[in-house]
Amino acid sequence: MFGIIKNSILGLLVLIFQWMLGDVFSLYGLTPSFLAIFIIYIGLTNSQIQAIWLGFFLGFIIDALVSTDIMGITALALSTLGYLAGIFHGRIVRIPVIVQYLLYTGFLLVFFILTVMISFQDSQFSTGNIVFLVLLPKTLYTLALLSGSFIVLKVGAE
Amino acid sequence: MATQAPSISRYTPLVNVLAAIALSLLIIASNGTSVMDRTRSLVLDGSAYLYVPIQWVKTIFTIEKDYRELQQRHIKAQIELNKSRTILKENQRLRSMLGFKGDREFNVIPANVLSDVGSHTMNSITVDQGSQDGVTLLSGVVDAQAQLVGKVVAIGANTALVQLMSDKNFRVSVREMRSRDVGILSYTLKKGYVIQDVPKNAEVIAGDSVVTSGFSDIFPEHIFVGWVSTISPVVEDYVKSVRVDLAADFNRIEEVFILK
Q1: What is the ipTM for the molecules in this complex?
Q2: Which end of chain B has fewer CB atoms within 10 angstroms, the N or the C?
Q3: Structural domain of A7
Q4: Degrees (nearest 5) of the Cα angle B51, B121, B243?
Q5: What is d(CA A40, CA A81) in angstroms, rounded to the nearest whole number?
Q6: Candidates 3.40.50.720, 3.40.462.10, 2.40.10.350, 3.30.360.10; CATH matching B171-246
Q7: Which residues, numbered 75 to 94 in chain A, qualify as contacts with chain B under a Cβ-Cβ cut-off of 8 Å?
Q8: pLDDT digits (tens, 9 = 90+) for B93-131
Q9: Window A:112-151, CB contacts with B under 8 Å
Q10: CA-to-CA distance for A142 and B229, rounded, in angstroms?
């Protein structure tokens, strides 16, 4: 129970950070998703179910706060991300480091495919533009921040 | 040896993620309903409690500088206003002679920016004025220099979410001041802000001013939008696209005015 409360408070702090300071980290209009990093972290180190529901509620709040598009997409994407990351809970340390980072890339790709591609579906942008100018750069940028924070937090290390 | 049936608890995460996905889809399907709008306004109002004190502290440090700037602007504006009054009276007299209808009247509601969120997919700001202050959905929003900023897309009792012009879903009908050509301005990933489908014979040149056309109920006409930067050559369909540099600086925006 204490773990759930602690992670919920931590999640709200990450949400506030994303909401208020996300723009500070914006590079050429690309804002990384700290919430995605947090949900992957919870899924890998705490519990899959916590990651799913934290992802859902934090995604819903951030959608309500900033979305000018369809509300609910981030909730859908973050809960899916929590499920995927949670599959490797307790097992991530037994996976070679290179495969770990391939997995993280896959997780982030799933998250950004859900958020970016759905969000852009009715726009006039071509799929190529969306993939190469938004989806991949956003994924790589978030992956770089995830790598840094996971090294500091020793996630995936025995 | 008999094999054991897999335990039900093995499927708990799967059941949970399916429940979360189902709820998310329900939320997506409920977009625009009164329940969803109420929930959203609750979250927006809740967020204001968090941001208002931070904004208040920031204001203390900038208030004197802002006051001096405003004094200078006020004097300049007063001179311009005197000139404009004379022109307005003349214009009204000529319009009445020609039988034109009167312009739409509107008031402004000043609002402080509480938070801003920008990305390639969405761009919005939260402001500290809501339905209790008279803000209505789809009201136009301008900055302190009366330059177009965006429109209100969600409102709480004391807060409102403003969709910025840099949002991919934002469209506004604009007029090029010199040639009087009209087009729809939107943001594109590759070209930035572009007026699409301008007739190929339109005499638009770089540096021309772009203002709102007044064709929509959201924005009155003559709100300054920006300047023409480049014009693409005519390739197909006998139209060209005109790139625009926006006047409003979304990175520095601290207060806005909501048109009522």
Answers
A1: 0.87
A2: N
A3: 2-14+31-153
A4: 110
A5: 7
A6: 2.40.10.350
A7: 75-76, 79-80, 82-83, 86-87
A8: 887 777 666 566 678 888 888 876 555 445 888 888 888
A9: 115-116, 119-120, 123-125, 129-130, 133-134, 138
A10: 33
